[in-house]
Amino acid sequence: MATFEIKEEFMLNGEPFKILSGAIHYFRVHPSDWSHSLHNLKALGFNTVETYVPWNIHEANEGEFRFDGIRDLVSFMREAEKIGLYVILRPTPYICAEWEFGGLPAWLLNKDMRIRSSDPKFLAYVRKYYEVLMAQVTPLQITNGGPIIMMQIENEYGSYGEDKDYLRSIKELMEELGVDVPLFTSDGSWLATLAAGSMVEEGVLPTGNFGSRGKENFAALKDFHQSYGKKWPLMCMEFWDGWFNRWAEPIVTRETDELVDALREVLELGSVNLYMFHGGTNFGFMNGSSARGTLDLPQITSYDYGAPLDEQGNPTEKYYAIKEMVHELFPDLVQMDPIVKETMEILDVPLANKVSLVEVLDDISEKLVTKYPQPMEKVGQNYGYLFYRTKIRREAEKEHYRIIDARDRAKMYINGELIATQYQEKIGESIYFEPKEAINQMDILIENMGRVNYGHKLLADTQRKGIRQGVMTDLHFILDWEQYSLPFDQPLTMDYSKDWHEGQPAFYQFEFEIEQLEDTFINLQAFGKGIVLVNGNHIGRFWNKGATQSLYIPKGFLNKGANEVVIFETEGVHSETISFTKAPIFDLVETTLH
């Protein structure tokens, strides 16, 4: 039976073992591409793959657990094992990872408790989740002949809290449920975060997260170990080889030579996990959001990250440079050629059908009637859009409206005419309109653009989406609302024989045939803002603010023969044709990561 221990060095089967790991998130890569990415990691000469486990994809709805398709964590780890890789698993309630709400399920927002704390109510929900999750993963520990060599407790908790009772409860729960591989924590490599987020007294290994200054960061980590009388191995659990990106901001890049030099410094002193090795894609509504002051700045659909493998999973310049450096440092490591996937181009696919959202609301959603508009979480919806409708009486020649306390982006229509688009910092400001009718229809489309994934705003009320207080005309709240949930989590049945209205949110259907399946990128330069469904699969958001103007489509979402793409577009901007390209499309100047 294989063994893995933490002594003065990492020990595998009684022999010193340097962990050369790369992060691949199974939930950001189509399952048909898992083997491709894992092979390319092994081909680099690396021996381990690391992945987070996001709670919100496995228990999206309370008490309903799923481990199928892209959620099939066990199959991902078995594939890694088959290829010859060990696994570092981070099955923490909170993951950050630029993922929606840091991986916490949105339904927790309806509960009266404090997340990421020793609050017994929160721990009770974690227990229910862990009882299911650990039954899946503990049979794959190295102690049971599987590939898992280590697991993590929480995630960068020293950058959030210092509730050691909470950390201890998570540790004890994991052990109670069968975890017996070594445990670790990961935090920034400075004293305040290490002290707040570690569990050295409990025998849990602290690791560091950083992307440069390896000697300095490892020295701080070593000093921290020694302050507890420990001579433990040094590991950078997240060596940031790139960075994430947000809408309307330039793509962040990192120079290859600088990266390789910084990584060499780390490898000469300890073990490493490249974050990311393959970044992948925030499919669906799963992008997270950065907290900046009063604003939440959502991240883009692509999680390319500037990683050694690009979004598609193909090797980049960084990959080959790292491979060469690793060979210089460890010439006895076995390396292989990476696998490179092809892409395809399809030009000028004509529009087949189009229909406005307002015409098909009752076909794709169930109407809820309430006195006051309800926020997303209160109607049992986690992600996507909410459509609100009411009737208003004309009381003045020039009416004054305000949307009070809503997130994240609102579009208001009167009698089908767009009269205002408001984003976070503008919601609540006055909207003026001169209605022509005695009774007028007010429609409001609200988009949840992604909850924050890091920092104190995880606790903020802003993470509840939709209209949270109400809509005012003059100085009073408007009553009697119809409300439609639009989570796009089920196949749509669309009646395209209904009307299309210019300038309104609408669905655009494109149909085409494919004989040879390859990856591709859908060109969205001619559209405004919205989402794309490929054969019913929600591949993510787009926005003409950039920096990306395309979305990646893995060939696993395509069919040999007939295919359908449906674009839900909210700004009234569309094209009568679409094209698919061999490479992603960018429209903002890159900025260098320092």
From TrEMBL:
It comes from the Bacteria. GO terms for biological process: carbohydrate metabolic process. Keywords: Glycosidase, Hydrolase. Pfam families: BetaGal_ABD_1 (PF21317), BetaGal_gal-bd (PF21467), Glyco_hydro_35 (PF01301). PROSITE patterns: GLYCOSYL_HYDROL_F35. Its EC number is 3.2.1.23. The active site is at E156 (proton donor), E238 (nucleophile). This is Beta-galactosidase.
